[in-house]
Amino acid sequence: MTLIRKLSALAAVCCAAAFSHTVVADDGPAYGPELEGFSYPHTVQEFAFTSQGQSLQMAYMDVQPTKPNGRTVVLLHGKNFCAATWEQTIGELASAGYRVIAPDQIGFCKSSKPAAYQFSFQQLARNTHALLASLGIVRATMIGHSTGGMLAVRYALMYPQDTEQLVLADPIGLEDWKALGVPSLSVDDWYARELKTSADGIRRYEQATYYAGQWRPSYEPWVQMLAGMYRGPGKKQVAWDSALLYDMIYTQPVIYEFGQLRMPTLLLIGDKDTTAIGKDAAPPEVRAKLGHYPELAKAAQRAIPHATLIEFPELGHAPQIQDPQAFHKALLAWLAAAPENR
Predict the structure, then answer these.
(1) What's the pTM value of the predicted model, to 2 decimals?
(2) Which of 16, 61, 116, 235 is deepest in the core (most CB within 10 A)?
(3) Is the C-alpha dihedral spanning 43, 48, 51, 54 positive or negative?
């Protein structure tokens, strides 16, 4: 039984409460700072390493196919996602013969939450490269969603010979929010915002942005996954690392280097996505210019030398969850047909 099915009963109850007119408490499971208590769909392993003078553990799933095709895919999650949210994608890729590595980045989910860490996309890419090296993986296809898309671009720029193909699923960073006028928020500001995180707030944001106004009980486990860390004993550390990560995302654009990507690249874009970091803090005239994914996707396709664009007109920020059949059909067809980086 999948994780989604295991939690379906909870999902139905939470959905009914969320969209009734009755005000309910933010009840639900409480998880530890490294998501202790939340089950992943496959065995979770830990990569222990030293970074910036600290001993850290990077959680990951390593799923082996029954009939290997000799290729490896690395799945890079987004800011409000975890490796577990790739559950259906892992299954589809493994069934097609791919070995699948799905890590939780440092600062996220089941991985270490350092009290002080210089977060950068370069550092997260190095951590990921070290994980793959520890597993004997030299070359892989990198698939990044949301913030994971920014990380996948940085990884491909740093390790071009090790990146066979690049897939960007509704990546953020297709525009430079700071340059467009989104005001800077300090880490302390982000921290204060993160401390207010609740299941209801997560659910309403995800319904509007990730799922284009739709909601299904199968989405609820991912709400509780995030909210549970903010109900648990490590809430302050989770919120602090989250604040540091938001600052990283805002201050480290990758858009200006798209032209340097040389590997075959696939853009999978839900056209109803409107994600933009800090948009709610921007003045109305700036906010109106942000997060127009159909235009952003076409601009990215023009900027990336060997890019293919596939759009999903009715989907939002998480097409792999909202319409997994359409998403995986497009993904698997392109992976099989597109040339590899040589």
Answers:
(1) 0.92
(2) 61
(3) positive
